[in-house]
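Instructor's aside before we start: the two examples that follow are unrelated to each other. I chose them only because their records fit on one page, so don't look for a connection. First example below.
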Amino acid sequence: MMTLVIGGSGSGKSAYAENCLIQMAEGKKKYYLATMQVLDEEGQKRIERHRRLRSGKGFLTIEQPTAVQNALTKMEAGEKTALLECISNLTANEMFAGGKIWSGKSVADRIIRGIEQLKAQLSHLVIVGNNVFEDGMLYDETTMEYIRTMGSIQTALVDLADEVVEVVAGIPIVHKGQEV
């Protein structure tokens, strides 16, 4: 089973996704696939905040900023669940890897294939995404390509997901499936 949880910054989507996976795990291993790379002090503070919020919930963290399917080799045998946090970081990491700007299509294809592999091997997979295109701003072409790539990835994930939930001000709105 796969659940996609989307929302704006500070919407409560991460907390909702964590609780969703905890309810689904039913005694199975719970992995937290962390995609954020620490680039500055603000990033470090965000990571520390998320770690504090996850503390005591039984998550085993795997740092996997790219090639999410490789996290499977770091997991123990048996039934397992995972929370992938988040699509925007993963997309940026893949798109701007190695000092090069990779095409949005190749990045989207890689990420979607990786998530399909995760979904096939896990009992439950919960993915956190972001609302895309909501600010109505136009950016430089590279940023717009990044945003379009996130949008195409999330569109594909909606098709793959059994459930899609948008969190707005802490309130889950179910768009596909039923609320956990």
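Example two begins here.
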Amino acid sequence: MDKVCAYLGPAGTYSEEAAQKYAGGTYLLKPYPSFDSVFAAVADQETARGLVPVENYLEGSVNLTLDLLLKFAAAVKIHGELLCIIRHFLLARPGQKAAQIKEIFSHPQALAQCRSYLDRYFPEAARIGMSSTAEAAALVAQSPGKAMIASQQAAELYGLEVLRAEIQDEALNITRFLVLAREDAPPSGRDKTSLLIGLPDQPGSLHRALGVFAAAGLNLTKIESRPIRGEPGKYIFFLDIEGHREEEKMAKALQKTGDGALFLKVLGSYPRAAAPL
């Protein structure tokens, strides 16, 4: 497992691009077929690190990642984060003309991040969500009238041509990725703590929980609710708070909040990402 980093494959995905930026030659990159398998690789110590997207600043959170953070909370911690600028390219088989495109394939998140562009320039083309870059590339390479949204690297890997470059609706299309490990990171002086909390189903419980962090002067940067499977109408909350769990005021706030909660799990403390890569 030493010096191996798992990511959502196959080759040519945006997760691979992010992993390359994170690894910087330090880790051997290994693709896995699903988010669940990336988490499992870290939990089972097949790899030292894993990398998964958790949030796009245009389209919001990746709910599957949030659900898996809960599922693997006992074995996997957040060790770091990075912000990546995602650039989308419209790819097709060599010689294909833009005017001939009838179907556009990609991951649903990528299609959503290019919605306005596609509405304007390809309003009649069907948009088809795919989970696999490789599967989409195979369809596009073999058939006329098809295109896909992917990275520029995917064009080189799968022998496709770039029809249109950087078609994302916003120039700063940023996705936040989490670095997974068996342990979180030591204090750096500029940290973030992620946690999930279950609260009693009674008036004011969320207000009281958040008030603890406000009273301690801790800045809450994100809150997200997710339904509890098998318990309709009940939710857990994911929080990001500036500071490290080992710092005194954070440790006291976590203990006080936990005393009034059904459960509280610290998912990890880790350095906050600086500028997008």
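The CA atoms of residues 59 and 112 lie 7 Å apart.
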